[in-house]
Design brief:
about 190 residues; alpha+beta; 7-stranded antiparallel β-sheet; two-stranded antiparallel ribbon; globular
Length: about 190
């Protein structure tokens, strides 16, 4: 902090390395954004922030990378799936897990309530989502999704939805499975 009596200015610099995604999820508990998805892997991030007397002029920037494997979270009362992998640095992932690689480069500016993404992405072996642009009152965010194998997209859709044995699949899961079963019909629907 500088100039405490006058026009004060504060700066923050933070770095984290090798933070376990499984531990973050355990810490968040029920507040986890995706309770039906389990992640094995790590996050690395650096962040800077600066502000004046209040947070009204906050400017924060982060560069984060995630290297992980995503799988369905264990269902209560059901045995945990067989685990694979023996690396000391990366926890073992359940068999059938989907590798996930992500980089987020973002800047938040409080003055105009704007979140800007630059060359950010989320990748799996067959799917790539890139993000560039701004989210604000006047958003202009370019999202580009390339899916080389719709079976992987269906698997990801199934991971993100909690499922019990007594509950059928959701409409989005059925839609993804229908697209896989009838690709020619899906192409006709997408053209119109």
């Amino acid at each position: 902090m500088k100039a405490l009596a006058g026009n004060s200015r504060s700066n923050l610099i933070a770095n984290i390395r090798g933070v376990s995604l499984a531990e973050v999820r355990r810490t968040l508990g029920a507040a986890a954004a995706t309770p039906s998805v389990a992640f094995a892997g790590a996050i690395n991030a650096s962040a800077t922030a600066s502000w004046g007397k209040s947070f009204d002029d906050l400017v924060a920037h982060t560069d984060a990378t995630i290297t992980a494997q995503a799988s369905g979270a264990p269902v209560a009362g059901k045995a945990a799936p067989e685990r694979i992998g023996t690396s000391k640095n990366v926890p073992a992932a359940p068999a059938g897990a989907i590798p996930v690689d992500s980089a987020i480069h973002a800047t938040y500016t409080a003055g105009n309530q704007q979140l800007a993404f630059t060359q950010s992405y989320l990748r799996t072996p067959q799917t790539n989502l890139t993000m560039n642009g701004v989210v604000s009152k006047r958003s202009s965010l370019a999202l580009r999704l390339q899916a080389n194998d719709l079976r992987e997209v269906a698997t990801i859709a199934n991971l993100s939805e909690p499922r019990r044995r007594d509950k059928p699949r959701s409409r989005s899961s059925w839609l993804a499975l229908s697209l896989l079963r009838e690709p020619f019909k899906a192409r006709r629907l997408l053209r119109t």
